[in-house]
Design a protein that fits this description.
This protein is mainly α and 154 residues long. It is built from eight helices and two strands. A two-stranded antiparallel sheet has the order 1-2.
Length: 154
C-alpha cells in the first residue's frame, strides 16, 4: 500500500519502530534457527571469542555475559540454559570458577554463522538503497536525541 507523506508524518514512531524491531529480530532468529543456532548462543560465542567481540578472549560467567548483553536480550532468552547447550556441544568449556571459555570448535561455529550475516542482511535490505537506510538510521538517532536518549557509538 502506498501512503502519502502527510499520512506517514502523522504516524506514531513507537508503533512503527516496535513493528520493525519485531519483524527484523524475528527474521534473524528464524534464519539462525534454520542452521541450528539461537541468537543468544551466537552472542555468547561472540562475547567469548578473541576473534570477535571479546577484547581479551577471557572466560566469562553467565552473569557477566548477561550484563554485557543486557541491552539486547529478550525476556525469553535464558543464558543459563543456552550455556548448557553450548557446553554439551563442546563449543565452550567451564572452569572451576564457573567461567565459560570458547573452544576451537565453538569459534569455528561462531565464524560459520557470522559468515552468513551478509546474505541475511542483503535479504533484509532488498529494495532499500544505502542512502535510504542511512537516512532512516539518522532519523531514528535524531528521535532518540530529541527524547533525551543517548545515541550509542557504532
Amino acid at each position: 500500500m502506498q501512503y502519502t507523506d502527510a499520512q506517514l508524518a502523522s504516524q506514531p514512531a513507537p508503533y512503527w519502530t516496535k513493528l520493525a524491531y519485531e519483524a527484523t529480530i524475528g527474521f534473524v532468529r528464524r534464519k539462525q534457527a534454520e542452521v541450528g543456532f539461537t541468537q543468544p548462543r551466537f552472542w555468547m560465542l561472540r562475547f567469548l571469542s578473541a576473534n570477535d567481540v571479546s577484547e581479551d578472549g577471557q572466560g566469562r560467567t553467565v552473569e557477566e555475559l548477561r550484563s554485557a548483553m543486557v541491552s539486547f536480550l529478550r525476556p525469553e532468552d535464558d543464558l543459563a540454559a543456552e550455556a548448557e547447550v553450548l557446553l554439551a556441544s563442546g563449543w565452550v568449556t567451564r572452569d572451576g570458577d564457573g567461567r565459560l571459555w570458547i573452544t576451537e570448535a565453538g569459534d569455528a561455529a561462531r565464524a560459520g554463522l557470522k559468515a552468513r550475516a551478509p546474505e541475511w542482511s542483503a535479504e533484509m535490505h532488498a529494495g532499500i538503497s544505502e542512502a535510504e537506510y542511512a537516512t532512516t538510521l539518522r532519523v531514528l538517532m535524531r528521535l532518540m536525541r530529541n527524547t533525551g536518549a543517548v545515541v550509542p557509538a557504532i
